[in-house]
Amino acid sequence: MNEKYQELLIQYDIEIHSTFRNKGTFMCETDRGLAMLSEYHSSLNRLAQEYEWKEALFAAGFTATDRYFVSKEDSLVVYDRYHTPFVLKHYFKGRECDCLNISDVEGACRNLALLHQASTRVLEAPALHPESESIADLFGRRNRELKSIRRYISRVSRKKSFELLYIKHFQKFYDEACHTLNALKDLDNHCYTPESGICHGAYQHHNILFLPDGSIATVNFESICRQPFLMDFYLFMRKTLEKNHYDHCFFETGLRAYSSVRPVTDGDLLFLYFLFLYPEKFWKISNRYFNRRKSWVSPKMEEKLNALLEQDADRQRFLSILKSRLPSFG
After folding, report:
1. Fewest CB within 10 angstroms: 72, 162, 283, 312, which?
2. Angle of helix 230-243 versus helix 102-121 axis, rounded to 10
3. Residues 3-31: pLDDT tens digits?
4. Is the alpha carbon torsion for 50, 52, 58, 61 positive or negative?
5. DSSP structure string for 243-301
6. Which residues form the domain of 298?
C-alpha cells in the first residue's frame, strides 16, 4: 500500500484486508466492508450536515448510502502530512444505473420514493445553510439571467454563428420560461404546495448503484438541500428522457414506480408538467456561454445548441402527451 494512504488509514479503527484503485479512487476492503478514501474539497460544516443526514436516514431504515467513517479522534476528516483533508466512506460493489434500461429506471424511481419516505420519517433534520430558494424564485432568477444574456448578445457588433443561432431561437424558449413561471405562481395562488423536505439534490444515474443482490445503493449526497421532493424525480427523469428521445414510456414507468411508494396527486402531476415545460437545457447553454470567455466561442457550444433544437420536437411531443393526461389544465 502507498505510504501516504497507509498514514491516513491508520487513523481509523478498522482492519484493512486489501486495497485497490477503481476509476481514480482508492478503495479498501475492510473488516467493516468496502470503503473509499478520497480528498475532501468542501466545508467542514457542510460535511457535518451530510454526515448527520445520512446517519438519520440509516436510523429511518434507508441504509444503503455511502456513510462516513469516524476516525479514532472522533473526526470526519483525517489529514496527510501536507494537511490535505481526506474522508473515508462506506461504498458498494455495483454498477451505475443505465438510463437506457427501462427496468433500471423503474428501480431507480422506486428507490427515490423510498429515500423520500425515509426523509419524512426523520423528526430532527439538520438545519441546512443556505436554505434552497423557492422554485418560483429559482425560475424568476433564471429568466432574468436569460433576458440579460439576450441583451448582451444583441449588443455584440460582429456576432459569431452561435450567437446568431441563439438570437434566432431565443424568443420561443424565453416565452416557455415566462409561461412556466406564471403558471407556477398560479398554482401557488390556488393553494397547491408540493411536499418538501431534504432531498438528494443530485439524484442522477452516476449516484445510483445496482448491487449484485438486486438491491440499490444511493451515493454522493454532497448536494442535499431542502426543496420539493418532486425536484429529485424531475432531475432524474429529465436526464433519462433526454437520453431516450423523450420516450413517454420511460416517464410513465418511472412515475408508476415512484407512485407505488409515494402516491402522486393531480396537483403533483401539474407541477411536474410545468417543471418539464421550463427550457432548462436552453438556460444551461445560455449560462455556460455567458460565464465563459466571449472572444472565442467553442464549437461545442453551437453543437449543443443544435442538438437541443433537434431534440426539441421530441420534447414537445412528450409535453403534449403529458398535458393531455392532466385532470385540469389552466
Report:
1. 72
2. 170
3. 888 899 999 999 999 998 877 789 999 99
4. negative
5. HTTT-HHHHHHHHHHHHTTSPPPHHHHHHHHHHHHS-HHHHHHHHHHHTS-SSS--HHH
6. 102-324
- The 10s digit of each residue's pLDDT in 199-227 is 999 999 999 999 999 999 999 999 999 99
Domain presence at residue 238: yes
**How would DSSP label each residue in 82-151?**
T--EEEEEE----EE--TT-HHHHHHHHHHHHHHHHHHHH-SSPPPPSSPPPPHHHHHHHHHHHHHHHHH
The cell numbers describing 29, all together, are 476492503
DSSP state, residue 204:
S
Share above pLDDT 90 across residues of the chain, in percent, rounded to a whole number: 82
Looking at the domain assignment, is residue 330 inside a domain?
no
- Give, in degrees to the nearest 5, the angle at Cα 58 between 208 and 216: 25
Which grid coordinates belong to 130? 443556505
Residues 117 and 163 in one domain: yes
Q: Which residue has the cell 461545442?
A: 300
- Looking at the domain assignment, is residue 147 inside a domain? yes
DSSP 65: B
- Structure pTM? 0.92
How are beta strands 216-218 and 208-210 bridged, if at all?
antiparallel
Look at residues 91, 111, 128 and tell me which one is the last residue of a structural domain: 91
| Element holding 17 (H helix, E strand) | strand 16-22
Positive or negative, the Cα torsion across 97, 219, 60, 49?
negative
Beta-carbon contacts of residue 90 (< 8 Å; ≥ 6 apart): 32, 33, 34, 35, 65, 66, 67, 68, 69
From CA 80, how far away is CA 194, in angstroms rounded? 45
